[in-house]
Design the sequence.
């Protein structure tokens, strides 16, 4: 919150904020004068309140003055009085918890919205002109540096966009820019900039949860200071990014492996805490730097700016696959000679006939699942690569999708399959004798095997025979890359 931000305008004016020079003597005198004025105001207010019953407005003023004078115990009493008058008062609820040392997990939404609604008209002037606010520039610089090492981003979102100070910095980096903020009045200011494609008044975590894999860039300038525990936020950001997406944000610098809440009601986060939460949510750290966020009562407020890249995880892959169109799923499973294998299987089983159990080793035949369904009542797949199995599972075209060593899978299912197919030479290639032996074990009586191989057709067909298979045909592939071997148990 900005209770503690009301400071003294930077004493030495400068051409750019980065060049601001503060004269320490002048600044100390200004601070002193400010403290004296605040104390005088507080005294006046206290006298007025002693004479008449306090209004919510007066108590509010008094609590804020007490905080600015760092009289935290007095401020706690005043906020408690406010709660007695108005038990639902959002700021009082938050500040009572913070000042009593409870450190709530985040600032409540009503409080944040009211605070920034009240602040919207003066936000840009106070932050930029008075407080030398630099968070958007730090986010933009870290984003540009991260993008140098990443493919371009198309869609970005500015979390807690406020009046839109980050938009001019990001607009040139993304094709589409969205923004979310709890404060309708801040969003109105952002809208007036005409730099966002879509602006939403809403809460960041719940909004992001509705937008899986929508953005390649998620940015947040000076917003995480309204969150203590960052677990839900980091998870929501991760969910809104595809693998490889970027999350760039600033925080106020805290200490240790936790987060703290200061007299301003804002939160600070320690580096160890941030790195832990980032790793847990599935991010790798691309950069992590200490920065000066702004001035507060003419003293620099230190922070961190970090850029994180969304890592591929089993969960992220599953989530990405679950929203992928069927055609894209199939394209990722296809193999050049899948059609040859299916055509051979059709010839072997015969028109109008069907077997009980079939399996696709490697999961390359999903595009032909319709034809294979005519040939078998039950269609399984297995692949060493678990990502491939997940993708096959998401097509919904197989009865069972497994991942693991194909050889062990077959050896564990003696006499089980009437039709075994393999369109990927990588599946059949490892050790031909072990492979054919496993196929022989898994094939039911009179079962059929069809597979694509590279290498020496003569040697392979001899190996198949040595493992007890009857080789029925060895057909060269049209592109000359190998052959299709058809055998029976
Ligand atoms: C200090 S301002 C920063 C605004 C802007 N990012 C900038 O750099 O100018 C923090 C903003 O975050 C918004 N905010 C804080 N918590 C939020 C939440 N949980 N959901 C949406 N907006 C939030 C506030 O309403 C406020 O506009």
Sequence:
């Amino acid at each position: 919150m900005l209770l503690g931000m009301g400071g003294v305008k930077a004493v030495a004016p400068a051409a750019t904020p980065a060049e601001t020079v503060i004269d320490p003597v002048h600044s100390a005198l200004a601070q002193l004068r400010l403290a004296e004025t605040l104390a005088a105001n507080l005294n006046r207010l206290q006298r007025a309140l002693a004479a008449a019953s306090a209004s919510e407005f007066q108590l509010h003023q008094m609590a804020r003055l007490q905080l600015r004078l760092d009289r935290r115990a007095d401020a706690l009493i005043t906020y408690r009085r406010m709660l007695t008058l108005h038990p639902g008062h959002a700021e009082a609820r938050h500040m009572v918890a913070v000042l009593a040392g409870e450190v709530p997990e985040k600032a409540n939404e009503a409080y944040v919205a009211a605070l920034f609604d009240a602040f919207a008209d003066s936000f840009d002037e106070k932050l930029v002109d008075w407080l030398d606010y630099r968070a958007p520039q730090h986010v933009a610089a870290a984003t540009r540096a991260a993008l140098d090492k990443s493919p371009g981003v198309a869609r970005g979102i500015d979390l807690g966009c406020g009046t839109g100070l980050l938009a001019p910095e990001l607009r040139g980096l993304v094709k589409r820019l969205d923004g979310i903020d709890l404060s309708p009045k801040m969003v109105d200011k952002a809208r007036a900039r005409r730099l966002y494609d879509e602006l939403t008044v809403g809460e960041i975590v719940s909004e992001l949860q509705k937008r899986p894999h929508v953005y390649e860039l998620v940015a947040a300038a000076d917003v995480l200071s309204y969150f203590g525990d960052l677990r839900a936020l980091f998870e929501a950001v991760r969910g809104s990014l595809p693998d490889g997406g970027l999350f760039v944000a600033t925080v106020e610098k805290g200490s240790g492996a936790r987060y703290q809440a200061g007299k301003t009601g804002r939160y600070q986060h320690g580096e160890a805490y941030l790195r832990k939460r980032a790793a847990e949510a599935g991010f790798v750290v691309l950069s992590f730097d200490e920065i000066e966020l702004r001035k507060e009562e003419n003293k620099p407020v230190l922070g961190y700016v970090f850029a994180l890249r969304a890592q591929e995880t089993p969960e992220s892959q599953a989530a990405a696959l679950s929203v992928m169109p069927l055609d894209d799923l199939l394209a990722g499973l296809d193999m050049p000679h899948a059609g040859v294998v299916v055509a051979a299987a059709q010839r072997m089983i015969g028109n109008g006939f069907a077997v009980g159990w079939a399996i696709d080793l490697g999961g390359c035949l999903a595009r032909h699942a319709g034809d294979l369904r005519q040939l078998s009542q039950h269609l399984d797949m297995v692949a060493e690569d678990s990502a491939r199995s997940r993708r096959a599972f998401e097509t919904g075209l197989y009865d069972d999708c497994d991942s693991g060593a194909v050889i062990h899978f077959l050896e564990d299912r003696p006499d089980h399959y009437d039709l075994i197919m393999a369109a990927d030479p990588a599946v059949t290639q490892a050790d031909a004798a072990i492979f054919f032996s496993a196929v022989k074990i898994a094939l039911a009586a009179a079962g059929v095997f069809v597979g694509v191989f590279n290498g020496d057709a003569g040697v392979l067909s001899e190996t198949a025979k040595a493992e007890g298979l009857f080789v029925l045909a060895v057909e060269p592939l049209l592109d000359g890359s190998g052959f299709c071997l058809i055998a029976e148990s």
About this structure: The first strand starts at residue 155 and ends at 159. Residues 324-488 form a domain with the Rossmann fold fold (CATH 3.40.50.150).
